[in-house]
């Protein structure tokens, strides 16, 4: 019985650790631009609004995903929540991966002369987002920070108690390993 209890505690600790590694969020400080990655749900939009109010960014950049028109809904939502329409910009290309989103956003932010950016995404996606964006932005002169959506369902301490948590975590770990091995698409 003691062996089983020990195995459960150790197993939980390892799974918690995996979730904790995936979640990284930089301190909230003033930035010139916020990037709202495509995908996710309306919680990302809400986080952009909260962050915009907290840091007063001049630019809110929305990415476009292949096969989606959600960026128009996101822009309308942002405006309805008080973000000026003139602050909202869009990437030019439609991305099929986080890597492409990083390239498209860097291109726009360089043209706008932005020097600091905070990328908003789901908690489980923050580590990979940080790796990719910092790699792509290297040499651009743009400081990249990443912020996890607050109040999100994904938590390092509970993800392992749902099928969705397992699916999400395994997918993200595989994508991280792929990126580390040189695969540049989702």
Could you characterize what this model shows?
The protein is α/β, with parallel strands linked by helices and 186 residues long. It is built from six helices and five strands. It has helices at 2-22, 42-55, 70-80, 98-112, 126-137, 163-180; strands at 33-36, 59-65, 88-95, 116-121, 143-148. The chain has a five-stranded parallel beta sheet with strand order 3-2-1-4-5, sandwiched between helices. Helix 5 (126-137) links the parallel strand 4 (116-121) and strand 5 (143-148).
Briefly characterize the structure:
The protein has about 190 residues and is of the alpha/beta class. It has helices spanning about 1-20, 40-55, 70-80, 100-110, 125-135, 165-180, and strands at about 35, 60-65, 90-95, 115-120, 145-150. A five-stranded parallel sheet has the order 3-2-1-4-5, with helices on both faces.
């Amino acid at each position: 019985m003691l062996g089983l209890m020990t195995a459960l505690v150790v197993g939980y600790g390892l799974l918690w650790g995996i979730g904790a590694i995936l979640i990284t969020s930089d301190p909230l400080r003033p930035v010139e631009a916020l990037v709202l990655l495509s995908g996710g749900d309306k919680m990302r939009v809400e986080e952009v609004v909260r962050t915009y109010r907290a840091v007063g960014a001049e630019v809110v950049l929305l990415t476009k995903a292949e096969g989606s028109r959600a960026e128009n809904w996101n822009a309308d939502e942002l405006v309805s929540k008080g973000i000026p329409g003139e602050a909202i910009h869009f990437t030019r290309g439609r991305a099929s991966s986080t890597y492409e989103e990083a390239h498209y956003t860097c291109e726009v932010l360089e043209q706008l002369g932005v020097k600091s950016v905070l990328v908003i995404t789901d908690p489980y996606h923050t580590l990979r987002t940080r790796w990719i964006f910092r790699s792509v932005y290297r040499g651009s002169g743009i400081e990249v920070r990443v912020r996890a959506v607050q109040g999100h369902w994904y938590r390092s301490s509970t993800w392992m108690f749902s099928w969705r948590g397992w699916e999400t975590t395994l997918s993200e770990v595989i994508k991280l390993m792929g990126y580390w091995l040189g695969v540049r698409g989702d």
